[in-house]
């Protein structure tokens, strides 16, 4: 009888824990490992890979050059992105204040990349996030979202893709960049 009581208690505890974890999961949106995102400034819908192995998000940019404007460092770059909604190619030269420079170490050695702040719509929310700029022409996805961004989204379901449609209207919630967000 004592053994049966422990088993019953154990089943109740496990059931309660599972119910609690399911309730937490239901409160959060789930995103697949590939989603569509909208770059807000230009209203371009692109495919984004959610990559928990990367800390900082990355955007496909060409002809990247640093320059000074009003005693501040800026970066000029060219975007060439296919809009997933319309099929049109967006190509424009962009200028943004330099947020910081990112040192990346890999098999090819050390690389310095400029980082800018951009607004991206994921689901029904706009997130102001850090994006390192690099030529991703040879990559499958022009936009890579790293852990800093993923941590604001909700749950990452690595088994699925395209779980959330980007729909950010004028009254969409804006999650501003948090300079204290220095995850490692």
Textual characterization of the structure:
- With 184 residues, the chain is α/β, with parallel strands linked by helices.
- It is built from 2 helices and 13 strands.
- It has helices at residues 2-27, 147-153; strands at residues 30-32, 34-39, 44-50, 57-60, 62-69, 72-82, 89-97, 100-106, 109-122, 125-134, 143-145, 155-157, 173-175.
- The strands form 3 sheets. A 6-stranded mixed beta barrel has the order 2-3-11-4-10-9. Strands 5-6-7 form a 3-stranded antiparallel beta sheet, with no helix packed on it. Strands 1-12 form a two-stranded parallel ribbon.
- The radius of gyration is 21 Å and the shape is globular.
- The model is unreliable at 5-26 (pLDDT under 50).
Helix content: 10-25%
Query: How many strand elements?
Result: 13
The largest beta-sheet arranges its strands as: 2-3-11-4-10-9
Counting DSSP H or I runs of 4 or more residues, the number of helices is: 2
What is the structure about, briefly put?
With 184 residues, the chain is α/β, with parallel strands linked by helices. Helix content is 18%, strand content 48%.
């Amino acid at each position: 009888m004592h053994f049966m009581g422990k088993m019953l208690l154990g089943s109740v505890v496990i059931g309660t824990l599972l119910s609690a974890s399911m309730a937490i999961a239901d409160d959060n949106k789930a995103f697949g490992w590939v989603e569509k995102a909208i770059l807000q400034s230009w209203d371009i819908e692109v495919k984004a890979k959610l990559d928990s192995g990367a800390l900082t998000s990355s955007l496909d940019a060409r002809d990247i050059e640093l320059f000074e404007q009003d005693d501040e460092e800026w970066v000029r770059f060219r975007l060439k992105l296919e809009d997933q909604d319309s099929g049109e190619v967006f190509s424009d030269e962009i200028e943004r204040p330099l947020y910081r420079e990112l040192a990346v170490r890999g098999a090819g050695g050390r690389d310095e990349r400029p980082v800018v702040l951009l607004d991206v719509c994921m689901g029904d929310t706009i997130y102001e996030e850090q994006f390192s700029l690099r030529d991703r022409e040879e990559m499958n996805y022009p936009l890579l979202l790293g852990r800093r961004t993923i941590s604001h989204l909700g749950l990452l379901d690595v088994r699925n893709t395209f779980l959330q449609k980007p729909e950010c209207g004028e009254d969409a919630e804006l999650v501003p960049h948090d300079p204290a967000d220095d995850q490692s």
